[in-house]
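One chain is below:
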Amino acid sequence: MGAAKVLQEAGWHIRFMPAERFLHDKLFIFDNSTTIIGSHNLSKTAMMSSYNVSVKIESETFAQEANGSFWLRWMKAQTTKRPDDSTA
């Protein structure tokens, strides 16, 4: 079972980027002031055996910009799985 399906069954709202785009960055916003953005997957394998980079930015202004960027992408994303993704 794909990760998206597991999350959907647990009640999460999942959206997918259109097939012509690939989204890999990760974005976390805490308390509307601290942002962590980067390429890390949240898995033991990613943390132990992959080269990725993430940065922590403590700025309310940046957090607001990042939040706006997230919602723009969310609105562009599709609510059904990508046609080429059999694992969703």
The chain has three helices and three strands. The chain has one domain: 3-76. The beta strands are 26-30, 34-38, 54-58.
